[in-house]
Amino acid sequence: MSFTNKDHEHPSKIVDRYLSRYNTEPNLGQNFLIDPSPIRKSIQASCNLGLSNDSHVLEIGPGPGVLSIELLRLGPKVTAIEISQDACDFLESEFNHEEFTLFNEDALSTQWPDDITHIVANIPYGISSPILERIQDHHQSNPLSGVSLLVQREFAHRMAMKSIPKDRGPLGIALWLDFECEIISDVPSSSFRPQPDVASSIVTLRPVSRIELQNVSRKLVRRISSWCFGRRRRKIRTSLRDLPRRILKIGKWSSADWLQILDNLENEGGNLRGFMDKRPEELTPEQWTSICRIIAR
């Protein structure tokens, strides 16, 4: 391994050198870490998800590489996708490592390696939702061992559904289908340059296989819950009666079929008793899967 910068150089010096070399300021909503503490915590969180020297890490948006360097010190193969040409030029000039591959691409559209085991990212807050959707789509066809992300704190709370009912919504329900989501640590604005207007959090996604999802369509759970949460003030009964045709097409249901399904739901007992009179944030992820199992049946 060969680094041109000093071993264990403070992240703030690396960021300063990058910004001064290109006479630029971060764009695309990117805020660079200058505090070693959250970097160490991100690395430790990844290690707790099985990261080792046999792993293959995808790093999204490495910027000046303050996290890339620490990942490489552990020994795994690292593939980095960076949309900024200046950042790519800087990374190539800063260090050279046989296990480091860099692509000057858009992580939302370019092909990801099939054999990645972990994803680590300090992603621009503006693309957090589409990145998560891309991660879940990739995980379905190429299972991951773990994901560690640095995101806006409010977004992290919605990912983990930290406070019920406020933080329960379609984002957390969708992630629950594939992962256990845990908030590892909060990160203050002072840890970044430039300082964002909001606080951040380190979040991990640990893959999980849920028995509740047997014979249940993930697409149906995501579409039905998202539709109802989009009408958060309405009761479930009202939202389901107004279900759009694009969702009905998932099960190839006619209008008559759907009316019969609603009757079945109205008469359901067990953990779904009375759920039609509730609002979406009052239902647990397990109840959403039970609803969709009955619908599909």
Ordered list of secondary-structure elements with their pairings:
Elements lengths: L1 E2 L7 H12 L9 E2 L2 H12 L8 E5 L5 H9 L2 E5 L3 H10 E2 L3 E4 L14 E5 L5 H14 L4 E7 H8 L9 H7 L2 E9 L4 E2 L6 E8 L10 H12 L6 H6 L3 H7 L3 H12 L18 H12 L1
Parallel strand pairs: 3-4, 3-7, 4-6, 7-8
Antiparallel strand pairs: 1-5, 2-10, 8-11, 9-11
Helix pairs in contact: 7-8, 8-12
Question: Could you explain how this protein is built, in words?
Answer:
The protein has 297 residues and is α/β, with parallel strands linked by helices. The protein folds into two domains: 2-209, Rossmann fold (3-Layer(aba) Sandwich), CATH 3.40.50; 213-296, Helicase, Ruva Protein, domain 3, CATH 1.10.8. Helix content is 41%, strand content 17%. The protein is built from twelve helices and eleven strands. The strands form three sheets. The chain has a seven-stranded mixed β-sheet with strand order 6-4-3-7-8-11-9. Strands 1-5 form a two-stranded antiparallel ribbon. β7 (118-122), α5 and β8 form a beta-alpha-beta unit. α7 runs antiparallel to α8. The longest helix has 14 residues, at 128-141. The N and C termini lie far apart (57 Å). The mean pLDDT is 91.
Notable features of this structure?
two-stranded antiparallel ribbon, seven-stranded mixed sheet, 17% strand, 297 residues, 2 domains, alpha/beta, single chain, Rossmann fold, Helicase, Ruva Protein, domain 3, 11 strands
